[in-house]
Amino acid sequence: MSREALALIDVDGVLNPHGSAACPPGYTEHELFPGELVRVRPEHGAMLLRLAERYTLVWATYWEDEANRLLAPLLGLPRLPVIPCAGPPGGGQDKLLGIAPWVADRPVVWFDDLHSAAAHEWAERRDAPTSLIHVDPVSGLTDVHIDQALRL
After folding, report:
1. Among residues 105, 112, 146, 147, which one has the least CA distance to residue 132?
2. pTM of this prediction?
3. For 45, phi and psi rounded to 5 degrees?
4. Which residues are 36's β-sheet partners?
5. DSSP structural state of residue 82
6. 65 vs 5: CA distance, rounded Å
7. b/e for 35-58, b at 16 or more Cβ within 10 A?
8. Which of 44, 107, 124, 134 could form a disulfide with 5 if both were Cys (CB 3.0 to 4.6 A apart)?
């Protein structure tokens, strides 16, 4: 894929594995929002920077600008572009409403724990290379996911 290819990064379920009661090994919990613990694995920064050699990293999360303000410094990441998501999490709207027009015709890999049926249909009908990489919200992003994206 070309340098203009995008890697869309979700936070909750991908970088913040919220799918288990216990904090997974390698993660620490931070209260980034009042009364809400966020699980952070510092190695995710280096993992994502490996992707940045081939992709432009972009936040595709309901955190929107908060990902740059609160999470990027903990991961050692620079400020990344942010795709405005089309509504609140769980609000019945799909992130795809913001993502599709933002990415236009560029190649995309999209890391998320909840790709909708509409996202899969969109990916299948796009002319540009598109890969939806599912991340288990119990374990979060791993090197396997990064390697999968780098093989495309």
Report:
1. 112
2. 0.93
3. -60, -50
4. 33
5. B
6. 21
7. eeebbbbeebbebbeebeebbebb
8. 107
